[in-house]
Amino acid sequence: MSWGIWAIIAIVLLIVETITVDFFFMMLALGAFSTAIVAAFSTSLTLQIITFAVVAVVALLFVRPWARNHINAGTGKESNVYAMTGRNAIALSEITENSGRVKIGGEVWSARTKNDQIIPAGAEVTVLEIEGAHAVVYEVNV
């Protein structure tokens, strides 16, 4: 019957893992599931604790780093608005430190400059950064 307790512990740990998504509690759940299997065939509490400790520690030391690197590897490239940094655009209107519009790859964005620079409409600009809904730009041929 102790195998059922270990199974419940493993399920609770997996539920906690879904909240944290850090692979820590999943490794403990792996230890608890392994211990549930051992407990189904042995009533030795010492063997169960040793099984849990060994499997959890091995999983934390070896499986968790691999899983985190594998899941978080991605493409290595920025995405969404962060990918716009460094892209060229065209000024659709005069761009000042307070207002302006640019076209970045087919999308129209609100834009502004830094350092009191004024960019005329039609100029080629480069996106310096994205601040909220504004692209901070500078003129390419200055």
Automatic annotation (TrEMBL):
The chain crosses the membrane at residues 7-30, 36-63. It is a multi-pass membrane protein. It is found in: Membrane. Pfam families: NfeD (PF01957). Coiled coil: none annotated. The keyword Membrane applies. The keyword Transmembrane applies. Keywords: Hydrolase, Membrane, Protease, Transmembrane, Transmembrane helix. InterPro entries: Membrane_assoc_protease, NA-bd_OB-fold, NfeD-like_C. Residues 83-137 form the NfeD-like C-terminal domain. Gene3D superfamilies: Nucleic acid-binding proteins. GO terms for molecular function: peptidase activity. PANTHER family: INNER MEMBRANE PROTEIN YBBJ. This is Membrane protein implicated in regulation of membrane protease activity.
